[in-house]
Description:
Elements: E1 9-12, H1 27-30, H2 32-39, E2 44-47, H3 56-66, E3 70-74, H4 78-85, H5 88-107, E4 112-115, H6 127-132, H7 134-143, E5 147-151, H8 160-171, E6 176-180, H9 181-186, H10 190-194, H11 197-201, E7 204-209, H12 235-244, E8 250-253, E9 258-259, E10 262-263, H13 265-280
Helix pairs in contact: 2-13, 4-5
Amino acid sequence: MSSNGKNEVYCSTGTVVGRVVGFDYTVIERELPRVVDASNADGIELVMLPFFYDKLDDVAATISRSGLRVAVVHADKDIGSLLSYGGENNARESMRLWRVNCEFSASLGVDRVVLHLWGNSESDTNFKYNLSFLPRMLDVADEYGIRVMIENIPCVALDPLSRWHEIDELVGERCGFIYDVRFGQLHGQNPDIQHSDYMESGRIEHMHISDFGGGFREFSAIRPILHPNEGKVDFPALFRSLRDARYGGTLTLESPVMSERGLNIDKLIRTLSWLTESISAL
């Protein structure tokens, strides 16, 4: 939350940069300033993509020219996936990428980074192994002044809220949590998370907003990622819980507007405006 007491709202670069549009990150400069301005949002959340690694200087220059504030960096999702695959080489590469992500975030003046601690088909099947790397990852983040926030991404062995409990037992308040309502809906955990100690105590520091149209643990319905009110997430209940908990964190819209025909910028502005208006009314 900003100093004026406002819950800040951001636009994820993942809404407009992805495979279907050839990973064209120049859209950050061309389109996102208009989106952020028209919707009264407060900046962007930069999603790190493997495509970026040999272009980091140009990515940074593009962001600088846009004039947009990068409030959060979403670290490369491959970091957690590599750990989940197991093996010394994968672990070494995961830690190397984590350092690159932290260093790049700090170079942009960003002090909050989203971490997927597990991922892909192996997911949380060997969670204790993934978790064993977390203290070292937090040490690296500390070197760069980064606050790490771990997301409730899909699980196949257990469930995200249980995994949060294990993380909390190991490292406590050294990290925060990010609540993704789409994944909460997938696991049937939205009510539990919304009324959990994590929400009440402020341990949930950031949120990812999109929608989910599938059923309980229907992993095949994770994509396409829906816009709010296109799926089954109960957003009125969500906003009531945020108001009751006096939620002090921030939110990012993650619903893409990419297709083979290009970008639907008008839809992005409409959805992001809905989110900023809904949060301002709390």
